[in-house]
Design a protein that fits this description.
By secondary structure, this protein is an alpha/beta fold. Helix content is 37%, strand content 15%. The protein has 2 domains: 119 residues, Rossmann fold (3-Layer(aba) Sandwich), CATH 3.40.50; 191 residues, Rossmann fold, CATH 3.40.50.720. Strand 1, helix 1 and strand 2 form a beta-alpha-beta unit. The longest helix has 21 residues. 41% of the residues are buried. Bound molecules: 1,4-dihydronicotinamide adenine dinucleotide.
Length: 328
């Protein structure tokens, strides 16, 4: 198949080429998909997309007119694809439902440990010869209550790790998960979970129902000084309300791997440019906020699995007209 890979970074190329072993004809497109770049896929059978590619109706129309029949997503989430437009245009969509839940769960734990023990501040202090401990006080994770919003694959991997730390586990999910219950996790309505947890970690998908799930009212339900971690999708948090909660001291720590407006920032080296997003710039000023640029998935194991599953979707589509893991 001829595959146009959008948002193609050197690491995408490395893992996809290794998985393909010469069986596909790739076009590497550094640009993100949008209505103006979509024509670069002309003549391709599949467009391979990542999370910040804008697969809106206008872009999909150009892709379909250029001969694309399959959208091969290199992600689990598909909130960036206009599903109605894709169906209207007869575009099949394949995704990577699971590549390494542990990769994202472990990253969430890295954010918790860094924020709690102020490793981000200690790192700089020690390099400057400042060995004072003031301001670095943390707390034992052992015995603390952790609330997990979304107990799917990543939430379950996260629960397993936190159980090892000796944490008490609470969960909220419309679908209870027997594996989590077996780990000792107790399900609660969201407001109750928020009121009880010392740490809240979000692992649900972004849907119309979860957009701004963590709004001012829900942030107000959290324990004063609690920690909030989001490695899922930025828009699940109402960022303006989160900033108000940080300023008032209600929110004690914030760890983010995702951000509402991240498509204008993440995955690019913008170190020589002025960041125009004032909300993001404000977030960077808090000492108790730690932000990573959507790197939860970025491990050797996950990248290999993403490449393998993406190409399995393409191969099945070429054979049977449907990807192996279709987006329903
Ligand atoms: P999953 O589909 O296995 O689990 C999601 C869970 O969320 C399901 O159990 C579902 O019932 C639950 N859920 C749905 N609506 C909910 C609500 N209103 N409240 C609470 N729970 C709700 O998905 P998986 O693989 O665990 O991934 C979760 C999310 O993590 C993805 O949707 C994606 O947005 C994000 N992600 C982030 C990555 C990163 O690099 N930071 C990488 C991969 C995924």
């Amino acid at each position: 198949m001829r595959i146009a890979v959008f948002s193609a970074k050197p690491y995408d190329r490395r893992f996809l080429e290794a998985a393909a072993r010469g069986t596909h004809d790739f076009t590497w497109i550094e640009a993100r998909l949008d209505p103006s770049t979509a024509r670069l896929a002309e003549g391709s059978d599949a467009a391979c997309l990542f999370v910040n590619d804008r697969a809106d109706a206008a872009a999909l129309e150009v892709l379909a007119a250029g001969g694309v029949k399959l959208l091969a997503l290199r992600s689990a989430g598909f909130n960036h694809v206009d599903l109605v437009a894709a169906q209207r245009l007869g575009l099949a969509i394949g995704r990577v439902p699971a590549y390494s839940p542990e990769a994202v769960a472990e990253h969430a734990v890295a954010l918790i440990l860094t924020l709690n023990r102020n490793i981000h501040r200690a790192y700089n202090r020690v390099r400057e010869g400042n060995f004072a401990l003031d301001g670095l006080l943390g707390f034992d994770l052992h015995g603390r209550t952790v609330g997990i919003v979304g107990t799917g694959q990543i939430g379950t991997a996260f629960a397993r790790i936190l159980r090892g730390f000796g944490c008490r586990l609470l969960g909220h999910d419309p679908q209870e998960n027997a594996d989590c219950i077996a780990l000792g996790l107790a399900y609660r309505p969201l407001e109750e979970l928020l009121a009880e947890a010392d740490i809240v970690s979000v692992h649900c998908p972004l849907t119309p129902a979860t957009r701004h799930l963590m709004d001012a009212a829900r942030l107000g339900c959290m324990r004063p000084g609690a920690m909030l971690i989001n490695t899922s999708r930025g828009a699940i948090l109402d960022t303006a309300a989160v900033i108000r909660a940080l300023k008032s001291g209600r929110l004690g720590h914030l760890g983010l791997d995702v951000y509402e407006e991240e498509e204008k920032l993440f995955f690019e080296d913008l170190s020589g440019t002025v960041i125009a997003d004032d909300v993001f710039a404000r977030l960077l000023t808090f000492p108790n906020v730690l932000i990573t640029g959507h790197q939860g998935f970025f491990t050797e194991e996950a990248m290999r699995a993403i490449a393998d599953t993406t190409l399995a979707n393409v191969a099945r589509f070429a054979e049977m007209g449907q990807p192996l893991h279709p987006v329903a």
